[in-house]
Write a structure and sequence with these properties.
By secondary structure, the chain is an alpha/beta fold. Helix content is 30%, strand content 17%. The protein has 2 domains: 221 residues, FAD/NAD(P)-binding domain; 225 residues, no CATH class. The chain is built from 17 helices and 20 strands. The strands form 5 sheets. Strands 1, 2, 3, 4, 5, 6, 7 and 18 form an 8-stranded mixed beta sheet that branches. A 5-stranded parallel beta sheet has the order 8-17-9-10-13, with helices on one face. A 3-stranded antiparallel beta sheet has the order 14-15-16, with no helix packed on it. Bound molecules: NADP nicotinamide-adenine-dinucleotide phosphate. Pfam families: Pyr_redox_2.
């Protein structure tokens, strides 16, 4: 195996010759680095940020907090969880950043990560079957295999509002928040009502002199039910963590929620109310994840859930106009066809006198000015700061931005111009030995690479018919649900011009793993090149 020449401090003269290059040091990339390194592969990570943590490195906006609860949302490695205890059921971004420092120290990850290394190109050399990957800072690596652990939410979406560049106040996207941004005593605007905007709004409403929230579609947010976690409680719980993490992989969401089997219509009204009261009181994602799941396919079941949500939420808002807007009689979209957000006191904060709401559906933004925003009503609203909580070019945005070229010379931008094609969500035709991971796939790819090496397989590459089949299966499953009825980032519909299609596997983690492992065992749907030069 070839040697690694670490990059020089200024990033020049860097050349790494690797078995595996990983792009991204979030949860997935860190785990991949650790697992591949244990197997003796020469592996290195290029990370765009100045430290590891992925979304937790980038998202430092006020109120940032994970909404997947503990103990599920953490590395399942015993060497990590044994000595780490969380202070809250839903820890803050600050605590997650501390956690990543601890993970780094425990697993010594940083020695194999180059930071501030934003990948800006990868060329495939077919003669030798390697890729040369470059970064904006001038790093270079040659690798036999490329793992893209670039996450779902990296590339910010900036809506193209007219004259945005004229605004002379502070303009910040939620995911590019910096420590010097101070909201105290300011007139702040937030655009958005997704999970990020909910968290920002809760916090900024407390600190800003005045807050105006611009909302195109209201959120259907669920109560977080935050609570402190006791160290002793966690110490005791750890006796079953190994089993708990195994169990999580067998659930649809990866979180430890048992779903109800059958249909909610099998219950009487009283039984349903009793169950939903219980799920509601548990907080987190219990109300949708631990529920009957027919609400995703059945409009009547879906509407029952919305009405339950509305009955619980509306009384929290005293201002009648705000209540009517934030909790409309008719659901703004089918419940859960946009990702649910968790809130702590969002509705009380929106009710405050120093918080105004602009309904963008009836009063859309016309243009930005030097001092603020003018909507259709013609009034100029003045702001010191505008926060874009407008989301991400999700799932594909980071890959299409990197100029990774395949065997055929095409970038992902070009390859996916008419929609995303992958086999198993893992590999793309034209891109030998390139694997896309979003978390659960790491262990599967680790086993795959061991198999390839054991069997003398130089490279695998998705076949186009397999990609077409995979895509069709995802779209067919999607068409059986209410998801395609709503414009969401799941559907790529939040980005103007992006193909509208389901970007996620809908069968749940357990079924996904069954399907992927079956295909990787036989390598069905892949073109395989062996060391002897044979192709199959
Ligand atoms: P998002 O869910 O895509 O929400 C973006 C918001 O911006 C929406 O309210 C959207 O309105 C609005 N928007 C976008 N373009 C607009 C335009 N041109 N004019 C007016 N409004 C516009 O993005 P996000 O809130 O950043 O969340 C993205 C994902 O990140 C979440 O779904 C979640 O998976 C993850 N996340 C997780 C956490 C956590 O764990 N704590 C926190 C934050 C985010 P429309 O609805 O009308 O499109």
């Amino acid at each position: 195996m070839a040697s690694i020449t670490p990059p020089s401090a200024d990033g020049k003269d860097a050349l790494m010759d690797l078995d595996i290059l990983v792009i991204g040091a979030g949860f997935g990339g860190c785990y991949a680095l650790h697992q591949f390194r244990k197997l003796g592969y020469r592996v290195h990570v290029f990370e765009a940020g100045s430290y590891l943590g992925g979304v937790w490195h980038w998202n430092t906006y006020p109120g940032a907090r994970v909404d997947s609860e503990m103990p599920y949302y953490q590395f399942s490695l015993p060497e990590i969880w044994r000595k780490w205890n969380w202070s809250e059921r839903f820890p803050s971004g600050d605590e997650l950043r501390e956690y990543f420092k601890y993970v780094d120290k425990t697993l010594a990850l940083s020695k194999d990560i180059t930071y501030s290394a934003t990948v800006n190109g990868a060329e495939f050399n077919e003669a030798v079957g390697t890729r040369t990957v470059t970064t904006e800072a001038g790093h270079q690596a040659i690798c036999r295999r490329l793992i893209c652990a670039t996450g779902s939410s990296f590339k910010p979406h900036f809506p193209a509002f007219r004259h945005l560049d004229k605004f002379r106040g502070e303009l910040v996207h939620s995911t590019r928040w910096t420590p010097d941004v101070d909201i105290r005593g300011k007139r702040v605007a937030i655009i958005g009502s997704g999970a990020t905007a909910i968290q920002c709004t809760q916090e900024i409403a407390k600190q800003a002199e005045h807050l105006t929230v611009f909302i195109r579609t209201v959120s259907i947010s669920l109560p977080m039910v935050q609570r402190p976690l006791d160290e002793m409680e966690q110490r005791i719980g750890k006796s079953t963590y190994k089993r708990m993490f195994r169990y999580c992989r067998d659930t649809a969401s990866g979180l430890g929620y048992d779903q109800q089997l059958g249909s909610v219509h099998e219950l009487s009204d009283e039984e349903r109310e009793e169950l939903w009261e219980e799920l509601w009181s548990r907080g987190g994602f219990n109300f949708n994840q631990a529920n009957y799941r027919d609400f995703l396919v059945d409009t009547k079941a879906n509407n029952l859930m919305y009405q339950f949500w509305a009955r619980k939420t509306r009384p929290r808002i005293k201002n009648p106009e705000k209540a009517a807007f934030l909790v409309p009689e008719k659901a703004p979209f089918a419940f859960r066809t946009k990702r649910s957000s968790l809130e702590q006191d969002y509705y009380e904060r929106m009710d405050q006198d120093n918080v105004d709401i602009v309904n963008l559906a009836t009063n859309p933004v016309q243009e930005f000015t030097e001092k603020g925003i003018i909507c259709k009503d013609g009034q100029e609203q003045l702001f010191d700061m505008v926060v874009m909580a407008t989301g991400f070019d999700a799932m594909t945005g980071s890959l299409t931005a990197m100029n990774i070229r395949g065997r055929d010379g095409l970038t992902f931008q070009e390859r996916w111009k008419d929609g995303v094609f992958t086999h198993l969500g893992l590999c793309s035709s034209g891109c030998p030995n390139l694997f896309m991971i979003y978390g659960p796939q790491v262990d599967m790819v680790v086993d795959l690479l061991r198999k390839l090496d054991a069997e003398g397989i130089m490279s695998i590459e998705a076949r186009r018919p397999a990609e077409e089949q995979w895509k069709q299966a995802i779209q067919d499953a999607n068409d059986k649900t209410l998801l395609p009825l709503t414009d969401s980032w799941y559907m790529g519909a939040n980005i103007p011009g992006k193909k509208r299609e389901q970007l996620n596997y809908l069968g749940g983690i357990k079924q996904y793993e069954v399907e992927v492992r079956a295909a990787l065992k036989t390598l069905e749907g892949f073109e395989v090149v062996t060391e002897r030069g044979g192709k199959s």
